[in-house]
Amino acid sequence: MNKMIGLDIHNLASELWPLNRSITGEGTRETLRIISKHIPNLCIKSVPSGTNVFDWKIPKEWYVKEAYIITPNGEKICDFSKNNLHLLGYSISFKGEISLKKLKNHLYTLPEIPDAIPYITSYYEERWGFCLSHNQFESLKEGNYIVHIDTKKFNGVLNYGELLVKGNRKEEIFLSTFICHPSMANDQLSGPTVLTYLVKWIMQLKNPEYSYRIVFIPETIGSITYLSLHYKEMKNKVIAGFCISCIGDERSFSYVPSRNGETMSDVVAKHVLYWTDHNYKSYTWLDRGSDERQYCAPGIDLPVASIMRSRYTHFREYHTSLDDLKNVVTPKGLDGGYWVLRRAIEAIERNKKYKVTVLCEPQMSKRGLYPTLSTKTSVQTVKLMMNFISLSDGKTSLIEIANKLNMPIWKLYDLVDKLESHDLITAYE
């Protein structure tokens, strides 16, 4: 029975919750430092502001000291210290007294979800502003408001975390998640926390078949930056990969393919999801929305797909204060997300081609593989074993055999190990 690991992942998400993550800044660095307590070999890299990365340039670093509004009756609202979603992402400084009419030009709400604070950013355009629920917006009274935003932008660095794990082969499995959003659970913390625990498992593998390239990056600008430094090497080494985000709720699973649509990542994702959740939602490449846009871009062409729970933009709480660790992301949801990704990685590790070592059917009884007592279960076991052997031609992969047998690949692992131990099958690349 699978160990319930979702509670540990949820506890890590709770620890990371208060930090003001953005595409740059101390909140992102602190997030990486906390993750590195679980992954001691994680290397935190820095790329200076102003560095050209393909068609983009690393922006200045953003620092927030404090931000709030004082209403005409002296009430403090939109207080950054109470909820970091209140401040427009990458807001510039502003201090002054202005009328409600002018203030409204700098306030952002979500009328269709009136009780939610929206998450809004302005990374590449200079502006100041606050985000608040539409209900609160509607309650604002006429008069003058004191606005206090104490932020600064300066030449600093963009940070990301990288870990390389060597396996028996130089070919790599690539795992990526983003770490650039403030207090949101499914569209932020589920990805890096689930990946952290996947990495802890990967580090315990005694003899991994493949090597692993793992990154914790700011979304978009981070993946573009990383690819600008490593894409040539990755094109030669990466044979499969997954973008990991929106993986922590208890709703149906989702799948976004690579641009190619037929990579090993796609085959494995669809197989694992089918046997995990028959009702999973399959999207097309045109529904892409996260870093798969960069990893699968023409000229990059990495075999990267996405396995999620509720897909970004497709759940009510997306990019709002309602995306929390109580009502949206749960230990059970995180646990399910962890195991579906772990099974996908295991499937890639175990997806070899096997060939039977004898001509015609092997004699199972002399090897102690044929049951001495005939029961319904034993008959089914023998049938599965003989069917598997009949398909082991050295040309058909394990996942292809699982599909032909109409069963999940992980149900074949013990059988493969048993037949290998008796030298009845041998593995081919």
How many domains? 3
Arithmetic mean pLDDT? 96
SS field, number of helical segments: 12
Query: What would the CATH topology of the largest domain be?
Result: Aminopeptidase
Q: How many DSSP-defined strands? A: 19
Shape: elongated
The CATH architecture designation of the largest domain is 3-Layer(aba) Sandwich
What would CATH call the class of the largest domain? Alpha Beta
Percent in strands: 15-25%
Low-confidence stretches: none
Terminal-residue CA separation: 30 Å
Rg from alpha-carbon coordinates: 25 Å
The computed structural class is: alpha/beta
What kind of sheet is the major sheet? 8 strands, mixed
Helical fraction: 25-40%
Assigned CATH superfamily of the largest domain = Zn peptidases
- In the sheet with the most strands, the strands line up as 1-10-12-11-13-16-14-15
